[in-house]
Amino acid sequence: MIQFSHLALYEENLSQRTRDRYFRKTADLWSRKRHPKSGRWSRAQFDRGQAMLGTSRPGIATYLTERNVFLCSLAQPTSWWKPMLDAMSLSDLTDELNGSRTADVGAGRTSDRDLQRADGCGRIVLSVSENGTRIEDIFERSPIRIMFPRAGHRAVEEAVLINTAGGIAGGDQLECSVAALPGASIAVTTQAAEKVYRALYEPARVATRLKAQESAKLAWLPQETIVFNRARLHRTTSIELFSGAELLALEWLVLGRAAHGEVVVGGNIIDSWRVKRDGQLIWADSFRITDEIYPHLKRKALLSNHNAIATLIYFGPDLDKRLDFLREIIPSLGCNCAATLVSGLIVVRFAAKVSYDVKVALRRFLQQFGPELGSVPFQVPKMWSC
Does the structure show a pLDDT above 60 at 85? Predict the structure, then answer.
């Protein structure tokens, strides 16, 4: 049986970051009461304990004082959230933003700085004991939460990061740090795919810091990051390695959701890697897309027809032997893939038209490459199957 330790407080999970004026102390919102004479919907004062998600009549109300969530299904569907969540064509996006239904949402705003944004942090330090890997130190700041699924009384093998805000918006700042001390072994993943929503001007900033000391084994295997239309994301992955350590690290991006027919036509993405070995920089890599580049992404010299891309790096012993093994299994992965050896690192790239193909390829990769490395922690994370 799988149990979760270090559970976050129930109320804190419900109390996500406030991101708009309808979450502030008081706001004029549509109530469910009609005026006794006119029969029209009336407005009332609500506080954050009884907030309506949206300024149109239908919506979702969360009553935190009762620890219950009520869904209000009324006459018409809301549409104010569509520009933020959905990727769409440029003309549809312009029409939606200019429509009267979104006027009260965007009125008077000039920057994401005017809105309350998330500033989350998570830190894990792991060491080794006679019973296996143990947690040496842990720190969380909302909306980041950390859980450790365990089977029975076995030692810690996997950590799961959770963003209780439900996604990332422009101006958010999230930071995750994992340090494996000598002899420790851990795989770190995320609860679900991360979503980066449309931003006004400010980018969301996501920083990942990994550290693997001598004889430590660290696997950083998050699920995909879905980038919506007009999203702005600056992500940095900084890795510090020591001789004798072993590391497998993955990051991947998906441009829109293929199942919804979404097309990303604008935004800004900077995805950077920096890897140091014994204090010396051995590999630096940056992927950058701007508004000017998006119209040309389908060129063969760029992403061709691929909307899902992934980068995976491996550091450890017997690199030449393991590179040969990877090149042998690449044809069985089912997507465009290539591997090379650079400055003491194996770098593997994945690309496919849809994210499902990349996920299947990564599963097959870990199922075949994991046993070559001795399996734990270099295996398919349990959360990928939930």
Answer: no
Instruction: Find the helix packing angle between 319-329 and 355-373, rounded to 10°.
Output: 140
Q: Among 27, 169, 196, which residue's Cα sits nearest to residue 112?
A: 169
Q: CA 352, CA 304: separation in Å to the nearest integer?
A: 10
**Residue among 227, 222, 375 at smallest CA distance from 311:** 222
Q: What is residue 151's predicted lDDT score, i.e. its pLDDT?
A: 65
- Contact between 329 and 346 under an 8 Å Cβ cutoff? The reply is no
Q: Is 93 helix (H, G, I), strand (E, B) or coil?
A: helix
- Cα–Cα nearest to 58, from 32, 82, 38, 34: 32
Token pair, residue 11, equals 């109320």
194-196 and 158-163 strand pairing:
unpaired
Residues in the chain: 386
What Cα–Cα distance (Å) separates residue 350 from each residue in 159, 166, 251, 296? 24, 26, 10, 20
* Contact assessment for residue 360 and residue 332, using Cβ atoms and an 8 Å cutoff: no
Token digits of residue 339: 């591997």
Query: What is the spatial distance between Cα 368 and Cα 349, in angstroms, rounded to a whole number?
Result: 16
Per the rule left: phi > 0, alpha: psi between -120 and 50, beta: everything else, 385 is alpha
Tokens linked to 238 = 């900084």
Overall average pLDDT of the 308-337 stretch? 96
- d(CA 256, CA 238) in angstroms, rounded, equals 26
> pLDDT tens digit string along 291-320?
999 999 999 999 998 999 999 999 999 999
The residues, any chain, with a CB within 8 Å of residue 58's CB and separated by 6 or more, are: 72, 73, 74, 75, 76, 77, 78
End-to-end CA distance of the chain: 14
Contact 259, 319 (CB under 8 A): no
Segments in 246-375 forming alpha helices (H): 319-329, 355-373
Joined tokens for residue 230: 């007009």
Which residues are CB-neighbours of 345 under 8 A, at least 6 positions away? 275, 282, 283, 313, 314, 315, 319
Residues β-bridged to residue 148: 5
Summarize pLDDT for 91-106 with one digit per residue, the tens: 444 444 443 333 334 4
Measure the CA–CA gap between 267 and 11, rounded to whole angstroms: 34
- In whole angstroms, what is the distance from residue 344 CA to residue 341 CA? 7
